[in-house]
Amino acid sequence: MLKLEMAGAIRTAGWFATLEVPAEDGSWRADVMASSTDGSRRMAWEAQLSPITVDDIAARTDRYAKIGIRVCWVHPGARPPQWITAVPAVRVRAPQERNEPWVVDDGLAGFVYRSGR
């Protein structure tokens, strides 16, 4: 569900979104890959549901950076994870009612979709 919500938000922002995008060598798989309309920028959006150490999430963030892909980690938990300030990340809350939006409770202050930042 969270992956679909992320993909929908990316598309609403005017970017392309593809679910479960693997690396060419198969060493990783992005939950949702956002691509600018001109194809010049990509950003992985990762739904981090399971526990992960700060070192592990930092290493995975660095792996993306080395190949020119920005990443944002998304956590839907009630409490902030230890890594929320160590990597580009947000903690989100699902809406109570069907037509309400998701809410960002912690993490990034904003995302400028035109620049991918």
Protein model, in words:
With 117 residues, the chain is α/β, with parallel strands linked by helices. The chain has a single domain (2-107), classed as Trna Endonuclease, Chain: A, domain 1 (3-Layer(aba) Sandwich). The protein is built from two helices and six strands; from the N terminus they run H-E-E-E-H-E-E-E. The chain has helices at 2-12, 54-66; strands spanning 16-22, 29-35, 42-47, 70-75, 89-93, 103-107. A six-stranded mixed beta sheet has the order 1-2-3-4-5-6, sandwiched between helices. The radius of gyration is 14 Å and the shape is globular. It starts with a helix and ends in a 10-residue tail after the last strand. The mean pLDDT is 88.
In short:
The chain is of the alpha/beta class.
Number of beta strands: 6
What's the number of structural domains? 1
Oligomerization state: single chain
Average predicted local confidence, pLDDT: 88
Helix content percent band: 10-25%
Poorly predicted residue ranges: none
What characterizes the major β-sheet?
A: 6 strands, mixed
- The helix-strand sequence is HEEEHEEE
CATH class: Alpha Beta
Structural class determined from secondary elements: alpha/beta
What's the tally of helices?
Answer: 2
- Gross geometry: globular
> What Rg, in angstroms, do the CA atoms define?
14 Å
Query: End-to-end distance, in Å?
Result: 24 Å
- Kindly report the spatial arrangement of strands forming the biggest sheet: 1-2-3-4-5-6
Reported by name, the CATH topology is Trna Endonuclease, Chain: A, domain 1
Strand content: 25-35%
